[in-house]
Amino acid sequence: MNKAPDSSIIDNLCDALRCLPGVGPKSAQRMAFHLLQRARPQGKLLAQALSSAMDKVIHCQRCNTFSQTSLCRICDDEKRDKSVLCIVENPNDLIAIEQTHGYQGCYFVLMGRLSPLDGIGPADIGIDKLMDLLRSESIKEVIFAINPNMEGEATLYYLSQLMNPLNLKLSQLAHGVPVGTELEFLDSKTIKRAMKERNAIEA
Ligand SMILES: [Zn+2]
Predict the structure, then answer these.
(1) Integer distance in angstroms from the first to the last C-alpha of the chain?
(2) Distance 109 CA to ligand 1 centre (A)
(3) Residues 113, 19, 68, CA angle at the centre, nearest 5°?
(4) Which one in 54, 132, 170, 198 has a CA-CA gap of 20 to 30 Å to 25?
(5) Protein residues within 5 Å, CB atom, of ion ligand 1
(6) How far is the CA of 200 from the centre of ligand 1 (A)?
(7) How far apart are CA 115 and CA 102, in angstroms?
(8) Neighbours of 57 (CB within 10 A)
(9) How does pLDDT run across 11-41, given as a tens digit for each residue?
(10) 62 CA from centroid of ligand 1 (Å)
(11) pLDDT in the model for residue 106
């Protein structure tokens, strides 16, 4: 792409914007020029918000979701049922289930799913942390709310095999969740029903 003269600061901005998913060189350039031309105060707020989030957001030490404190709001809530653990792929899915207001248990967020082709193995999705949690607390039931696609199914199978010796009640969301759909794009009613009609996982 042709570059304007003396544009190293702009180039740096464009390069930095390209870390966002789905943003190629042209969209990065469009965003950079939009910020410079029409949204400088908002651009400064964006920079501050990004810097603060990158410095201060950590993973909840119990459920692995993003949190500002060592225990997230849900893990720290005495009213939540700590004996039921719902396993989701990412914080978007956790929020999608929370918005149904139909689930009172806790979560574990894998922050991904097994994907050998992308080099994502068990160590990359917090499995050690999850197994430590299952062994150290009196969790009775695990609900898999993993997206029903090929990698999701493989992740579910792998985890259910690992958990088998722990004598837990394992279930997965009932279908009603269309195959190939990401939870975050479903309406609350569908997720609520799938959660209610979850299926036991046969070992
Ligand atoms: Zn937590």
Answers:
(1) 55
(2) 9
(3) 65
(4) 54
(5) 60, 62-63, 72, 75
(6) 25
(7) 30
(8) 10
(9) 999 999 999 999 999 999 999 999 999 999 9
(10) 5
(11) 97
